[in-house]
Amino acid sequence: MLPVLYAVTLFTGAASLFLVQPLVGKLLLPLVGGSPGVWNTCMVFFQAVLLAGYLYAHRATNKLGVRRQALFHLLVLATVLFAFKAAIASTGSPVPVVTSLLPDDQDYPIFGLVALLSVAVGIPFFVLSTSSPLLQRWFAATGHHSARDPYFLYAASNAGSLLGLLGYPLLIEPRLTLAEQQSLFAIAVAVYAALVFVCAVTLLRYGATQTVPDNSPEDPEVHGSIAAVHIPAARIARWVFLAALPSSLLLGVTTHVSTNLAPVPLLWVLPLALYLVSFILVFARWPDSVHHVVGQVTPLLLLCVALSLLVDASEPFALIGLLHMGAFFGVCLVCHGELAKDRPAAEYLTAFYFWMSLGGVIGGLLNGLIAPILFHRIGMVEYPLAIVLAAAVRPRSDAPQGEPPLRKSDVLLVCILLTITVVLVLLVPRYVVTPLEPDELESWPAKLLRGGLMFGLPAVAVVVLLRRPARYALCLGALFVAGAFDAGRLGETLHMERNFYGVVRVSRSPDGKFIRLIHGTTIHGQQRADDAQCPQPMTYYSQSGPIGRLFQDLAKRKTKIQRVAVVGLGTGTVSYYAEPGQEWTFFEIDPAVARIAQNPEYFGFLHCCKAKYEIVLGDARRKLTKLPDASFDLIILDGFCSDAMPVHLLTREAFGLYFQKLTPTGVLAVNVTNPHLDLPPLVARTAGSSNSSLTVLEYHDRPGERDRQLGSIESQWMILARSDPARDPVLFDPYWWRRTTVADGPIWRDGFANLLAVWKKSGD
C-alpha cells in the first residue's frame, strides 16, 4: 500500500500543478492579450519556481535529514493554507490577480507579469513543485522493498501532470466558471496537503533511515543507476543540456505552430502533452531497442522539419503540424531517455531532479526572455538553432566509438554544402517564379519545384552524412544559413521587429506590387508599392468590402459619426474613411505595430488621415473602462493578431462595455473572420443576451479575381446596433447585410468561455 499512497499523492500534486497553469493563463488574458509571449513567460515562471522547489527539496533533505525535513515540510504546507486564507480575505479569491503590477504600454511587460504571477500562485506552486523529488526521496528512506529505485514514481507524477493538462480544456473549462476553477484548485491543493501529511506520518513511523538501500549498478532492478559516488561536473553538464534542449524546443514548436502554421486555440496543449508523455515512457522501463530506433529516426524527422521551415511550408496543416510534433516528440524521447538511463542512485535523487529542472529553466529562459531581446531584429531563430543542436544528440550507445566528433574534412564538406546551397538559393528564383498569391492551391507545384531545386538536392547530400552527429548538425545549420538568402513566400523583408507580442515584419510581396505588414504569417494590412501619395484601402478594409459598405451606409444616416474607436491598429488602413472634423482613437496592444503604422516610409494611411487621431497603447478593454460613457459613435473591433482569439474581447461583459461607451445611436462593427471558429452565432447570442433590442447583421465578402488582384481578401464582418427606427433608422443595405441567425449555444462570459463549442465543423 505504501507505493500506492505515494503514487496517489504525487499524482494529485502534479495534476494540481498543471491545473493552475492554464487557469492562470486564462486569468491573464484580459490583461496582456493572447500572444505566445504570455504563455512563454508563464512557462519560464513556472519552470523557475519548479527549480526553486527542487532546490529546496535537495538542500533541506541534505541539511536536515529525511526525518527532520519531513517535520519541517509540514510547516511549509501550512503556509499554503495561510496564503489561501489571506488571499480570500483580501480579494475574495484563492488566486488573487493584482492588475496594478502590470504596465500597459511596454514592448516587454515581462517583469510586471512575473510579479503578478508571484502574488497570484507563487506560494502554492512552489509547494506543489517540491512533490516529485521530495516524496521520491521520502519513499527511498521508508525501507520498502521497492525503495531501491523510486524513479517509477516519476511516471505517476507525469501521469498526473498529463491529466491536469488535458483535463482542463476538455473537462474543466467547458463546465466551470473561473471562480469555480479557482475553488477547485484550492480544494485540490488542500487534498494534496492532507495526503502529504499521511506520507510524512508513515515515513516517521516506519522508515526515515538516513541511509539509502544499496543501489549498485549490478542490480538488475535498477537499470542505469550508479553507485553513490561524487557526480562529475561533466555528467551534470550533460544532464542540464539534455533537459534544456527539449524545453527550448517545447516553446519553439509551440510558438511556430500556433503563429506560423495555424493559430488554433488550445494547440499549445499538444506539445506540452507530448513533453510529459516522453517522461512517462522513458522512466517506465523504456526498452533499449525502442530507444535505439527513435534515435535513428529522429534526425531524419529533424531534416524534414528543417526543409519545411526553409520553404515556408504551411499546408496541408495537418501533415506539416504532425511533422513538427513528431520531430519534437522524438527529440524528447531521445533526450529524456538518455537522462533516464543516466539517473544516479537514490541518494542523489534530489540533486538529479534539481539539475534537470535547471536545464528546463535555461531552455525556457532562452526562448521566453533572452531570444526576444537578443534576436530583436532577426526573428525567431531559436527554433532552428534548437533543431540544429538536437540533430547532434544521439543515444550514447549509437555514438561512433573511438572517433573524434568532428574532422577537418567534415568542416570542408559543410563549407562546400553551404556554398552550393547559397548559389542555388540565389539562382533558382530567377528561373522558377511562383504565382502572385503563394498560399493559393495553384501555386504549390511551382512552390515545390522552387523549394526542391534550392534545398532538396542539398538535403540529399545531408542524408548521406547522417552517420556522424556533429557533421550532420553542422550541415543542417548550413542549410538554415543559406536559407537566410531566400526571401521566401512572404517576400523581401524591409523591416522586422520582435517583442513580447511576437514578430512583426514589413515585407514587399513576391511580385513587388505590395508593401505588407505581417504578424506571423497573417497579413494585417498592405498598400501598393507605387502609391506615392495616399494609398487606397485593401485587405479587410477595401471599398467594395464590408467596411467600405459600412461607411457608405453610415453616410445615409441622419446622425453623422463624429467619434470613432478602433480596436487593433494594423497599418491604420481603416483611417482612409476618416473625415475632417472627426476624432479617431486607435487601441493597440503592440508598440511595434504602432511604430510601424506611423512610419510613412512603409505605410501612408495615418499620414494621410483627414481626422484628428490618437493611438492608445495597451489592452483595449482595460483602456475603454477608463473613458466616459457614450464616448463613441462607432467602435470597430479588429484586435485579433495572427487570427488568434482574445476571448476577453468577445464576452458578455465586453459587449456590455462596448455599448456603454457607444452613444444611443452608435454602431459596433466586429471582424469575425476566422478559419477555425464559427463566430457570428456566438457574437449574436453573447451581445444580444444583455441587449434584447439589438439589430445584428453580417456580411461575408468573397472577392472575385479582379478584386483579389487589387489587394482585397476574403473577410466576414458583423454590425450591431441598438434599434430606434423613430429617431434614426438603421439604413444598412439589405443586399449586402443579412440578419444573423441566432442559434442556441453557449454565451461567453468573463468567467466562462468554451472554444471547442464554437469550433467549425468539417465542411463549414
What level of helicity do the residues show? 40-55%
Distance between the termini: 53 Å
**What is the CATH C-level name of the largest domain?**
Alpha Beta
- The tally of structural domains comes to 4
Number of strands: 12
Oligomer category:
single chain
User: In CATH, what is the homologous superfamily of the largest domain?
Assistant: Vaccinia Virus protein VP39
Task: Annotate the secondary structure layout.
Layout: H1 2-32, H2 36-91, H3 110-129, H4 131-140, H5 152-172, H6 178-206, H7 233-261, H8 269-282, H9 288-310, H10 317-341, H11 349-374, H12 382-391, H13 408-431, H14 444-464, H15 469-483, E1 492-499, E2 502-508, E3 514-519, E4 522-528, H16 546-554, E5 563-567, E6 583-588, H17 591-597, E7 612-617, H18 620-625, E8 632-637, H19 652-661, E9 662-671, H20 679-688, E10 694-701, H21 705-709, E11 715-722, E12 738-739
Parallel strand pairs: 5-6, 5-8, 6-7, 8-9
Antiparallel strand pairs: 1-2, 2-3, 3-4, 9-11, 10-11, 10-12
Note down, in words, how this protein is organized.
With 764 residues, the chain is an alpha/beta fold. The protein has four domains: 213 residues, Growth Hormone, Chain: A, CATH 1.20.1250; 173 residues; 76 residues, no CATH class; 223 residues, Vaccinia Virus protein VP39 (Rossmann fold). The chain contains 21 helices and twelve strands. The strands form two sheets. Strands 7-6-5-8-9-11-10-12 form an eight-stranded mixed β-sheet, with helices on both faces. It has a four-stranded antiparallel β-sheet with strand order 1-2-3-4, covered by helices on one side. A hairpin with a 2-residue loop joins strand 3 and strand 4. Helix 1 crosses helix 2. The longest helix has 56 residues. About 3% of the residues have low confidence.
